[in-house]
Amino acid sequence: MSAFRRATGWGVAAVLVAVSLSAGPAFAETAEAAPALAPAPVDLAIGVTHAENPSVPEGAAWTEHYFPSSAPSNNGDPVELHADVLRPAGLAADVKTPVIMSIGPYFSHSGMNSDTHPLHTGPSGRFTDLIDGAELMGRGYTFVYVDLRGFGGSTGCTDWLGTGEQADVVSAIEWAAAQPWSTGSVGLYGKSYDGSTGLAGINEQPEALKAVVAQEPAWSGYDYLVTNEVPRTNQVDTPLAYIGIAALPGVDRAYQQDGYDIPADTSRYLENAAYEKTHPECAETLKSGALAIDRASDFWINRDAPSHVDGSTVPLLFTQGLTEQNTKPEGMQRYLSNHAGEQRGWLGPWDHVRGNEVDAEGRLQMGRAGWFDEVTAFYDAHLVEQTTEITTGFVIQDNFGRWRAQDTWGTTAKTAVVPLQPGRYLDTGRGMVDDDGDGGGEPGTNPSPNPLLAVADGEDVDAPTSTDDSLGILSVSHPVRADTRLTGTPAVELRTQGAGNASIQLWDVAPDRANAVTINSTVSKLSADGATRFTMLGTDWTLKAGHRLAVTVGTIDWGYWVPQPSDAEVVVTGGSVSIAVETTTADVATEGARAPYLDQYLRYFTSEKPFPDSPETFTLSAALGSIGTDATTVETGSSFVVLGAGYDPGAPVTVTWRGESLATPTTDASGAFSLTVPVSASAATGTATVTAVAEDGGRSAFDVTVAAVVPTPTPTPPTPTPPSPAPPSPAPVPAGSGSATASLAATGLTTEAVPAIAAGAGLVLLAGLALALLRRRARPAER
Asked: What sections of the protein cross the membrane (predicted)?
């Protein structure tokens, strides 16, 4: 590579996934292979076992069911839903079990996202990994696949997470809860699209829904196809891909080989599977609705899950790859903030994978073991025990592969507001690349060949090079003094003049600026009133001490989006990026290894050119420095001590007293300082404020009351009493009755104490005489 990747660096990483954005279904994964065969008889009446049909998981018995959805299709037809039910083999029909269900578009008997022409029909194998890995049948669970409207054996028009599909979710949950073999407790499980239907279940909150597990869901339908009114390249192709999935035919042929006698799908299933083909209006409705680019349109409002989760308390266990290139962390924090129930999450630098998924070398794709253990404990607690205890918690892998555990995510005590530098750029939408990397092509055209399609064909394609090597308008921090974590969802405000689009990227810049890593990126159409506000991707990225944060603003670059450039100058007059920041000193380490995808991400998103040597324009710090004092009241002519703690190490802190600068101490290695403040004898009394300002502008203050010195009065000694006449001599007493020594002993004093007492009495007398003389001298002269 010879140039920086700008906003499209995130699009480039899409080459690392299954290229579903243009050539296949958006949320889909690789279709399951035809199962291995073993001879066995068939008896549909009592449920089909693995011995009778190898598509059935071991230990399970498969039956099919149909039931109505509560909402009609958008063409007015009633909707019939199809379910494949897997119960523990040999379990009597009236034995009640809790139910785990997945509701989605991927369960056709003829393939997950394309017709794989299987040898025979059978239930989907999409979540056999869960059924086997979590030993669901042995644990006494029933697992149910339900086809959304228009998919598999269900009728109706596909609805792309709309109100129709939301009604399907509720209908399926209520149907399962009402079956004679159900305890009435239902949990949802899924990944990607069928993870998003889990979110729909949380939003609708039917009484029977007790828990949801959602891996890598799309948090908002809008954000999957459009970014802040800028269409993505998959805005057209993704709906078309799902229209294709809805047309999968089922299996119309029997299989009678190797001792098997497996019939074809029933006529009811095959007729339902053909619904989309016989109702072309379904495809037209979906295609036209998905072309809307306004988030506030009716089509997208109905599909914005974060807007509809308010108040729901259904427990949620989820995973989210923070470097995901398919279902990105868009709208995630908004959803979690609005959700009122238990939340447990795995977050980290992986792509579109499952919690238990391994790569070709057997390494866990997320890097952490125990996914099925956590899932079963979660379901046991909420479906079996039906606990009301909330055990919210997150485990998070950072960009160094280190895992930590914490109670919440994205909510910190400090938000850094990064000021954006003014500047200007030409909104050309330069997304042109060529194979030579020389920036060929005409402005406004798409790259040819398309690197996404090239990778889909198995070619080794490097990330594209932008025609315009400029990064746009740069804002660069001073090196951070301590490890600084950026977390949560950054919020952007741009103040601009001129029409067009904007891309914004965050960069982790090496200390010597030899390279930089793109850590967050998004785009937006600029608002006509010149004030554009939007959020970026959810993030969790730590800048090592000595690194810099850079923010770039410019035109949208290369192919992940389909912008309509204005070809006009855009003037940025200012703006900001607000980012939640925190230190790493309180991290609680937990088990887990490095996600393999992290190294791929760093390789693809690390620039090969030195970062521009632009001026540093802001200071970034996660420190929560504060000051206190050893005394809240001081006297004039004395002093007090300002104690500072919680600052970055080696950082200057400006301390002011009554609005005037006192000093700028530098913190020690622990981020603390001590400063003695003298108070002059002539200082004004009253309350005064001491303020400390950190180098990032953070302030801390306390009040001190200054009091005048009150003189201590000199005590007036008493006037000496004239000596009394000597007492008469005592009468003689019998010998041995007492003596002077004996009388002293009776007082508790010894003879050694007498001289001291006498001396003391003499001093008192001298003091009295001296005072008398002073008084005499102080009298005015007599006339």
From this structure: 753-774
Which of residues 776 and 533 earns the better pLDDT score? Answer: 533
Sign of the four-CA dihedral 152, 158, 162, 163 = negative
Q: Is the pLDDT of residue 458 over 80?
A: no
Residue 623 and residue 671 in contact, taking contact as beta carbons nearer than 8 Å: yes
Question: Which amino acid, one-letter code, is at 771?
Answer: L
What is the pLDDT confidence band of residue 746, given thresholds at 50, 70 and 90? very low
> How remote is the C-alpha of 306 from its chain's centroid?
14
Hey, what CATH topology would domain 414-585+607-618 get?
Answer: Jelly Rolls (2.60.120)
Rama region for 697: left / alpha / beta (φ>0; ψ in -120 to 50; rest): left
The CA distance from 585 to 141, in Å, is 43
Phi, psi of 47 (to 5 degrees): 100, 140
Q: Which residue has the higher pLDDT, 735 or 121?
A: 121
The answer to whether 363 touches 596, Cβ cutoff 8 Å, is yes
Give mean pLDDT, residues 1-5: 41
Runs of H (alpha helix) within 134-233? 163-178, 193-204, 221-225
Helix (H, G, I), strand (E, B) or coil at 772: helix
pLDDT in tens, 377-405: 999 999 999 887 878 899 999 999 999 99
Q: Average the pLDDT over each of 183-197, 465-479, 677-691 and give the range with the smallest value.
A: 465-479
Q: How far apart are CA 336 and CA 410, in angstroms?
A: 10
CA distance 467 to 464: 10
- Annotated domain spans of the chain: 32-197+229-308, 414-585+607-618, 626-707
Query: What digits encode the pLDDT tens for the residues 609-630?
Result: 899 999 999 999 999 999 999 9
CB half-sphere exposure, 765, CA atoms < 13 A: 9
The pLDDT assigned to 720 comes to 61
Please tell me what DSSP assigns to residue 682: T
**Residue 568: CB atoms within 10 Å:** 11
**Alpha-carbon distances of 151 from 327, 535, 679, 718, rounded to whole Å:** 21, 34, 80, 110
What is the pairing mode between strands 699-707 and 686-694?
antiparallel
**Within the chain, how many helices (H) and strands (E) appear?**
17, 33
Q: Domain 626-707 has what CATH class? A: mainly beta
Percent above pLDDT 70 for the chain? 80
Q: What was the pLDDT predicted at 659?
A: 83
Residue with tokens 């974590």: 485
Distance between CA atoms of 519 and 521, rounded to whole angstroms?
A: 7
Among the listed ranges 548-562, 596-610, 673-687, which one has the minimum average pLDDT value? 548-562
More confident residue, 746 or 129: 129
CB distance 494 to 575 below 8 Å = yes
Does residue 670 come out as left (phi exceeding 0), alpha (psi in the -120 to 50 range) or beta?
alpha
What is the residue type of 137?
A: M
Mean pLDDT of the chain: 85
Report yes or no: 346 and 319 within 8 Å, Cβ to Cβ: yes
CB distance 424 to 620 below 8 Å: no
pTM for the model stands at 0.83
| C-beta atoms surrounding 88 within 10 Å | 19
Query: Residue 529 in contact with residue 567, Cβ under 8 Å?
Result: no
pLDDT at position 730 is 42
Edge-to-edge order in the sheet of strand 626-629: 626-629, 639-645, 673-678
Report in angstroms the alpha-carbon separations of 307 from 204, 230, 301, 689, 752.
12, 21, 8, 45, 93
739, with CB counted inside 10 A (0-12, 13-18, 19+), is exposed
Q: Is 160 exposed, middle or buried (0-12, 13-18, 19+ CB in 10 A)?
A: buried
Whether 275 and 74 have beta carbons less than 8 Å apart is answered as no
* Residue 462 to residue 13: CA distance in whole angstroms: 10
- Rounded Cα distance between 390 and 404, Å, is 20
In degrees and rounded to multiples of 5, residue 623 shows phi and psi of -65, 145
